[in-house]
Automatic annotation (TrEMBL):
InterPro entries: DNA_brk_join_enz. Residues 182-191 have a biased composition (Basic and acidic residues). Residues 170-197 are annotated as: Disordered. GO terms for molecular function: DNA binding. It comes from the Bacteria. This is Integrase family protein.
Length: 197
């Protein structure tokens, strides 16, 4: 059975009607996702992929033997040519489902997902000079050079305002994280004591 990626609103209700016991099991799944404070997109992606599998086998996912689950996942990636993210979401959703119903052994037998780590692209000196010289306006050149020298991300650069860059009483405004800022404290600088006459 090959199927197109259907959206959440058609796959899950269809599985609730067609697969016996899926409606009650899926309500437990949804409750647990809410209690674990999972995002709505995570809940819908996991739920849709679990519903796909339940429709494919005609029974609850935890009633399917692990070797059939693995052949199902193999067919998804090789023959149906679905994306790797669909495969990952199905595996993670099944792990969550198995743990929910106390089947930790089956969750451990799920295929492991490789995490590919890519190295950042490092520019040469000449490439940096070319990038900094590319903008026509001086302020754009300055912003690029400033961001590069300070190691700022683009969203941090867009949050900069002139008052953050200005010096006030010899203290600079420092940023502690992406969104929070700390302002210089006036009590840090010693105040002149009044002389009594």
């Amino acid at each position: 059975m090959t199927f197109k990626k259907e959206n959440y609103t058609t796959t899950v209700p269809k599985a609730k009607v067609v697969v016996p016991g899926f409606k009650q099991a899926f309500s437990q799944f949804e409750e647990r996702m809410v209690l674990d404070q999972c995002s709505k997109s995570m809940a819908s992606n996991y739920g849709r992929n679990i519903a796909h599998m339940a429709l494919h086998f005609g029974k609850l996912p935890h009633e399917v033997p692990i070797d059939q689950v693995n052949s199902y996942l193999y067919r998804l990636t090789v023959y149906d040519n679905l994306s790797i993210s669909f495969f990952k979401q199905t595996v993670f959703g099944l792990r969550y489902w198995y743990r929910l119903f106390g089947l930790n052994d089956q969750a451990l037998h799920m295929p492991s997902i490789k995490h590919t780590q890519t190295l950042p692209t490092v520019l040469s000196k000449q490439e940096c000079k070319d990038i900094f010289a590319a903008p026509r306006l001086l302020k754009h050149r300055f912003l690029l050079a400033f961001a590069y020298a300070a190691g700022l991300r683009m969203n941090e650069l867009s949050l900069l305002t002139p008052c953050l860059l200005a010096k006030k009483k010899g203290n600079e405004t420092k940023r502690t994280s992406k969104r929070k800022e700390t302002k210089p404290n006036d009590h840090e600088t010693p105040k002149k004591e009044r002389k009594r006459t």
